[in-house]
Automatic annotation (TrEMBL):
This is N-terminal Xaa-Pro-Lys N-methyltransferase 2. Coiled coil: none annotated. GO terms for molecular function: N-terminal protein N-methyltransferase activity. GO terms for biological process: methylation. CDD domains: AdoMet_MTases. It holds the Pfam family Methyltransf_PK. Belongs to the methyltransferase superfamily. NTM1 family. InterPro entries: MeTrfase_NTM1 (IPR008576), SAM-dependent_MTases_sf (IPR029063). It comes from the Eukaryota. Keywords: Methyltransferase, S-adenosyl-L-methionine, Transferase. SUPFAM superfamilies: S-adenosyl-L-methionine-dependent methyltransferases. The keyword Methyltransferase applies. The keyword Disulfide bond does not apply.
Length: 284
């Protein structure tokens, strides 16, 4: 179709208007409202583009950011601080998950140009299932960050015997957490990215870049929708499709080194993917 791609011209024109209009003026407010409505109908009717791909804005499905986060916290208050709790109803998949994670991680660590094995950060760690089975066998020290205090408290029992190599337990929500600068060889983000809005996930990934040592990597492992962005009201999370995740990762300035689908999970489960990413060497 002739019009295909014309939205790019509209986009750059509008960006210009955004910059030039006074942000508090009525014309700016009107311009924004018209732009959103017009642009979305235009894309849908003329270019047949699924809106969610261009507007990977979780705010469209979340309906209220504060409530989105509050509901997730409410959900986790009822979740037991056990491996079963961390795996939802799928404890039987834990060993397959761990085995694949270990294999995937091995590709990016040790040796010239690869990530080191000094220190890793487990994000959305829960009680430390990933720390225990995937990270501690490889890294000299590991740090945990999770929003639930009781999970981190339990982590200290659960990781007993290896406690001296677990250096820090940060009780923070990822949207408010900044990894210490240039500290980590690997930052692992598993089954937690869906609890962050697009904007917060994007900003968190940007902060992670600063937390990485040279050759450091981030590994993000999560459920991936077959298409679009699906809201799960039960635990107040979203499941993004692969193209949305990729676009967020790339927008943050990371380059995807490799992505791999988790194998060995039942067909009826939502697909799970692992994405390894590294800071663009051109960036400061
Ligand atoms: C499904 S569990 C996964 C735990 C662990 N990553 C694993 O694979 O065993 C999700 C974890 O994410 C944490 N979480 C959810 N939203 C979070 C947020 N906004 N910031 C930090 N942690 C969060 C929960 O407290 C919970 O421990």
């Amino acid at each position: 179709m002739d019009g295909k791609g014309a939205h790019l011209a509209f986009k750059s024109r509008w960006r210009k208007t955004d910059e030039e209009l006074c942000r508090h003026s009525m014309s700016f407010i009107l311009h924004k409202a018209i732009r959103t409505d017009f642009f979305q109908s235009y894309l849908y009717l003329l270019e047949r583009l699924p809106l969610v791909k261009l507007y990977a804005l979780t705010s469209e499905v979340i309906n209220g950011e504060m409530q989105f986060y509050a509901r997730a916290k409410h959900f986790y208050r009822e979740v037991p601080a056990t491996e079963e709790g961390m795996m939802g109803d799928y404890i039987e998949l834990s060993s397959t998950d761990i085995e694949s994670s270990r294999e995937f991680l091995r590709k990016f660590i040790g040796g010239p140009g690869k990530a080191g094995t000094e220190c890793a950060l487990d994000c959305g760690s829960g009680i430390g299932r990933v720390t225990k089975h995937v990270l501690l066998p490889v890294f000299k020290s590991v740090e945990l960050v999770d929003m639930m205090e009781n999970f981190l408290a339990e982590a200290q029992n659960y990781l007993q015997g290896k406690k001296d190599r677990v250096k820090m337990y940060y009780c923070y929500s990822l949207q408010e957490f900044t990894p210490a600068p240039q500290k980590y060889d690997v930052i692992w983000i598993q089954w937690v990215s869906g609890y962050l809005t697009d904007k917060d996930l994007l900003e968190f990934l940007i902060r992670c870049q600063n937390g990485l040592k040279d050759n450091g990597i981030v590994i993000l492992k999560d459920n991936v929708a077959r298409e679009g962005c699906i809201m799960d009201p039960l635990d107040s999370s979203v499941i993004r499709d692969l193209s949305i995740l990729q676009s967020l990762v790339e927008k943050s300035g990371f380059t995807i080194l490799q992505q791999e689908r988790q194998e060995g999970f039942p067909e009826q489960c939502v697909p799970v993917w692992m994405l390894a990413m590294q800071k663009d060497p051109g960036l400061p």
